[in-house]
Design brief:
Elements lengths: L4 H9 L22 H68 L1
Length: 104
């Protein structure tokens, strides 16, 4: 049977996407084109973006440190609560037992 458009397209589909011989090259950011003033401005903007990211990281770091300090303080306060609960239970037991003895 002679190849028709229909048959030819089916045949070629298998060969359409051959595996690449090597992985695609990583895209490298090319320096901006233009005058020296434009290049300097682009570098200034890049530097500003980097500094902004560093400040954001510093804010996030401080937030995490604040949360750690908060929960550390919360945990430090809990043993006092347990001591207060134990003291309240002891006083309650003393009053209840003492009151029952005095009545009887």
């Amino acid at each position: 049977m002679p190849p028709t458009k229909k048959n030819a397209s089916k045949k070629n589909r298998g060969n359409e996407n051959p595996a690449p011989a090597q992985p695609p090259a990583k895209k490298v950011k090319m320096p901006p084109k233009g005058t020296r003033e434009q290049k300097l401005e682009h570098l200034r903007l890049d530097l500003r973006d980097i500094i902004k990211k560093e400040l954001d990281v510093a804010k996030q770091k401080q937030f995490v440190l604040d949360r750690i300090e908060h929960w550390k303080n919360e945990l430090d306060a809990r043993p006092e609560d347990k001591d207060a609960d134990a003291l309240a239970d002891a006083l309650f037991d003393k009053i209840v037992k003492g009151g029952a003895r005095g009545e009887g």
